[in-house]
Structure formats: structure tokens, C-alpha cells
Amino acid sequence: MKVEPFSLPLESPLETASGTIEERNGFVVRADHRGETGIGEATPLPGWTESLGDCQTALDSATSLRDLDAAEVPAARHGVATAMLDADARADGVPLYQWFDADSADRRCRSVPVNATIGDGTPSETADAIAEAVESGFDCCKLKVGARSVEEDVERVRAVRERVGDDVTLRADANGAWTRPEAESAFESFESLAVEYVEQPLAADDLAGHAALRGGSVGVALDESLVQKRVGTVFDADAADVLILKPMVLGGPGDAYTLAMQARERGIEPVVTTTVDAVVARLAAVHVAAAIPDVAACGLATGDRLARDLAPDPTTVSEGRISVPQSDGLGVDPSEVQTDA
Ligand SMILES: O=C(O)CCC(=O)c1ccccc1C(=O)O
Ligand SMILES: [Mg+2]
């Protein structure tokens, strides 16, 4: 196994209620498996995964995937798991999304729907950013809330709704910022603004609070709660309409795919997102989404936030969809991946 560090600045930092993401540091992993060299990416995100140092330590000492615990070092595990899956899918001559479910291996998925991701900002900045996204083809936009008062966030969503009309699906992501009364007030206002769902309105450990918010027209999506709680506990709490699945946070593409299928069985809609990663991990997330039949719009259109990348991006985003590479494996040529770009 070969592990190389990289550091990539963001061209447009993402402002959220739990801080601003300004750069992404991680490791490219190359692993020989079944006669192929697969490529993976471990890009830890402080607060969501292990630290960069712990990720490096785990990668340096691991000899196989089994040495890497999804709950302890999810990003390191993601890096190795992705490299193995890339090699597996190459060895079997299929794009990675087809490799996840052998029973429907001839199902073609050429693109998946995506949402635009809009950070915090004033009402007019937010309306401008969403109008621009809609102009470039997105019909589903997610905006970050919770960094300012609920009144201001409601004003932002109202400004957006007035600007883009009723045909655009709007989602919000509070990143755990609200108290129960704040969330109740936001949900009440968001009903008339036709917000589809709110991601993580309350603190990650407040499953009962999330369960109590459900039942109206605004859905509850859990994201950070999956980091904090066992998935069985989340399912048992009946606290979510939607589960946000981040392969980097969950220990790899295979773990995320398995969770997506478990969610579907329970009537919970899976939504796959990146953690604003480099191209290798973004592709892994695209393949997870493509493996889910009729997947809802996913948070995969984050590539253009990076100022530079590890390799050319084979995907394109247009008309609110991201293309899915159809070549074997992830769809990136390992010889084109450079960590010193
Ligand atoms: O879901 C999206 O649209 C993009 C991904 C995203 O918002 C995100 C990116 C990095 C860290 C956390 C989050 C999040 O969903 O909270
Ligand atoms: Mg979220």
C-alpha cells in the first residue's frame, strides 16, 4: 500500500453553523488487489472524522482493511476501502456502481440528480447565490442555516423563494445549531416556504427532539447524528425521514451503500454527499449514489469549490445532474492522480 499526503485550498470556502471549511488535507492511497492497482482517498474532516494525524497513523500501520475501524478512523478506512473497490471493479470490468449490486449489474446509470450547496450569507447574498445555481441548471438547492438567528434564516429562505419561485426544491442544513424551540419556530415558518427537509436541526445526540419534529410537511434529515449514534439507535428512535450518508464519515463507499439499502428497507430516504473532497473521493460518492435505484438529489456537486484538484474531474454537472463515469472502477486514471498539483 502506498500513501501520499496532499493539501488543497478551497476557492470558495463553505460557511456553516459549525465553522467554515477552507481547505482539505488528506492522503491518496494506492493498493494492489486482484492484479490491479486501485486508488483511494482519505480526507479527514475535523469534527466529523479522526484528525489528520490519527488518519496518517492509522494508514501507516494498517496492513489490511480489517485493521481500520469505521467508528475510530473512518477517513483512513475510506481511503483503503475505496482503493480495494476500485481494484475489484476494474478486475471485474465494471464501473464501481455496478459492482455494489451483482444482481442488477447490467443496470445503467448515466447520471444522478444533485443539489447545489449554498453557504451562509445575507438574505440578498443567499438569493443571488441560489438564483445563479438555478440559472446554471439546478432545480434543488440546499442552503446552510443556523449561523444566524432563526428570524434571519427565515428571511433568507423567504428571499430565496421569492426570487426563484415555486418550482425549485429547497433544503436547509442547520448542522445541529438549533434548540428545540428554535427548530419548532423554523419548521413552522419553513412549512409555508415549502422547504423539503432540514438536515440536523438539533444537536446530534437529541434523537427524541428530532423524532418530535417529524410529521409536518418539512422533513427531518439526520447527518451528524450518524457520527454520534449507532445506526441501530437512529433507526429505533424513528427520528428521520432522510439519512445523509457521507462515505468519508461512515468508513467507506461500501459501508455507505449498505446503510443506504438498510434505510430504504425502513422507508427512510438515503441522500449521499461528499465532505467537500478531492476528485477520487467525490467519484466514490457518485458511484454510491448511482448504485441506489432512483436516488433522491444528492450533495455531490462540490468539486468546483476546490482551487485545484488531484486529477482532472471526469464528471460534468448540468441540468441538475452529475454524470456517472462508465469506465471500469472509479473512472479516474491512477497515473493522472498527482498529490503535488
Ligand atoms: O450536502 C451537500 O450539499 C454538500 C456537503 C455538505 O453540505 C457538507 C460538506 C462538508 C461537511 C458537512 C456537510 C454537511 O452536509 O453538513
Ligand atoms: Mg449536513
From TrEMBL:
Active-site residues from the entry: K144, K246
Protein residues bound to Mg(2+): D173, E199, D223
Keywords, alphabetical: Lyase, Magnesium, Menaquinone biosynthesis, Metal-binding
Keyword check for Lyase: yes
Record pathway: Quinol/quinone metabolism; menaquinone biosynthesis; Quinol/quinone metabolism; 1,4-dihydroxy-2-naphthoate biosynthesis; 1,4-dihydroxy-2-naphthoate from chorismate: step 4/7
EC number: 4.2.1.113
A family per Pfam: MR_MLE_C
Database matches in Gene3D superfamilies: Enolase-like C-terminal domain, Enolase-like, N-terminal domain
Top EC class of this enzyme: lyase
A single GO BP: menaquinone biosynthetic process
Domain Mandelate racemase/muconate lactonizing enzyme C-terminal: 123-220
GO MF annotations, alphabetized: magnesium ion binding; O-succinylbenzoate synthase activity
Family membership: Belongs to the mandelate racemase/muconate lactonizing enzyme family. MenC type 1 subfamily.
HAMAP family: MenC_1 (MF_00470)
Protein name per Swiss-Prot or TrEMBL: o-succinylbenzoate synthase
